[in-house]
Amino acid sequence: MLIVSLILIFAGRKVIKILAFLVVGLIGASIGGALAAQYLTGAGSLGNLLGVLLGFVIGGLLGVMLLAVGIGLAIGYAAYVLTAGFVSGTTIPLIVGFVFFIIGLALHNKVLGFVTALAGGLLLFDVLQLYGLDPTVSVIIAGVATLAGIWVQEGLGRKKVTQTVSNVGGQPSAHN
Q1: 162 in a domain, yes or no?
Q2: Contact 90, 84 (CB under 8 A)
Q3: Is residue 40 pLDDT above 70, yes or no?
Q4: What angle do CA 10, 15, 21 make, to 5 degrees?
Q5: How far apart are the first and last CA of the chain?
Q6: Coil, helix or strand for 71?
Q7: pTM tops 0.70
Q8: pLDDT tens, 143-172?
Q9: To 10 degrees, what angle do helices 135-153 and 108-130 make?
Q10: Is residue 172 part of a domain?
Q11: Contact residues for 90 (Cβ-Cβ < 8 A; gap 6+)
């Protein structure tokens, strides 16, 4: 679990996208294979292979696209739970949850690194507690690791390179 937490903290954005593609792709491959076996019986094993490959690719792409929905749901649910703790009734928390679902859906790619680093940090805290570290020390280590993971995943330490384009020696002018 320590390794999983560190992977989530420092490379969660890439790992989650790959996992979503592979997991849903495998589900799609099994569905595609089953459909090919049922409807492409005359094509034999080539039809089966085609169904599996097509199902894998379609399922994998669908998995990556549904990742945005999953992040939207997670953010919306968190907003709902937090609002429900402060407001009595369900109407306002549902509205707030829905608004944050839409925000999470729209900004899923922007918050993916933050969300995976935070999830990895929470997992790291649990692992450190399991190893018997003091809760305060565990919070500090997990917090610093989470902040470092956000820094790494969001590329905050990289310098932005700008490129200028000139027309020197390019197109002939109208005066020639």
Answers
A1: no
A2: yes
A3: yes
A4: 165
A5: 70
A6: helix
A7: no
A8: 999 999 999 988 876 666 566 655 555 556
A9: 150
A10: no
A11: 84
